[in-house]
Amino acid sequence: MTPRGPAPDGACTPLHPTQRIVGPLAQMHRAQIERAQWPEFERFDAARYDPELRHQAARNWWFRARQEYGSVLEFSALLHALTRVGAPIELTGALGRLITDEARHAELCRAMTVALVGEERALSLPWEPIGMPYPPAPQGGAESAPEVLAWAADVLLTSCCIGEAVSRPIYDALIAVTTDAVPRDVVRQILRDEHLHASFGWYALEWLLPRLGGPARAQLDRVLAVRLGSFERTCSAGVALADLVDKELVIEPPAEDAAPNLGTLGAEAFAMIFYATIEHDILPRFEALGFDALRAWRTRHTE
Ligand SMILES: [Fe+2]
Ligand SMILES: [Fe+2]
What we know:
binds fe (ii) ion; single chain; mainly alpha; Ferritin; 303 residues
C-alpha cells in the first residue's frame, strides 16, 4: 500500500527498501528490471528442500539484496558528484547504467529470498540501515572539481575497482556450486552485469588519474592500502591468509548426489577467492595504472 502523506501524529511513515508500491512507478520499475529475461521464480520448488537450508540461503540472499541496494547509494552519490563538476556525458551515462543494474540486482536478490521462505518470512529478516562507506563528497560547483575528483577517485578505486572485481569470481563460484536452476539463473543474471561494472571502474579511474593534482594522487596510494585492509577484514571472514597456505580451491559442478546448495558459499572459499583475485587481478591492474600496489598490499591496514 502506498503511504499517503504524514502519519496522523505528524511523524513520517517509516520507509523500507523492500516495501512494495503499486501503480505507474512499479510499472516503470518492472519495465527496467525485465529488460532481460526475468528468472522463473515460480518454478522454484521450495517444498523439495529442508526449511533450515532454505532459511540459511534466504539470509544470504537478503544480505546480498541489501548490498546491491547499497551499491545504488554509492554509485548515485558518485554520479551526483561527477555531474556537479561537469564530467563527460559518456562517463555519467555509463555510470547511470550501473545504477539501474544495481537496482535490478537488489530486486533479483529480494525475489530469490521471497521464493525461498515466502514474503512474510523474508520481510522479517534483519536489514541493517545502509550508510555511505565514505565521507560526503566535497560541496561546491565547478571550482570544487579538484577535491571532488579526488573524492571520486577513492570511490571508484574502492567500490568499482576492488568491490566489483571481487564480486565477479564470487558469483562465478556460486554458479558452479549452486544445485538448483532458479538461484543459479539469478546469479548468472547478476554476474553478466558485474563484468561491465568492474571494467567501468578501471576505465573511469584511468580517465580520472591524470586529472588529479600531485598531492591528491599521492594520497590515493595511501588510500589504496587502507581500502585493501578494509576489504580483507570484510571478505576474509576471520580466515587468515596464513591458514590458506598449501590449500587449493577447487570449485567444480556438484556431483549428482551432492548436498543441495541454494546459492551459498563457505567462508573459507570466499576468503580464498578474495586472496586469489587480489593477487592475480586487482594488484596487477593497479600496478598497470601506476600505483605501487604491491607496497600498498604489504602495508595494508584499516583506519
Ligand atoms: Fe550488483
Ligand atoms: Fe555491480
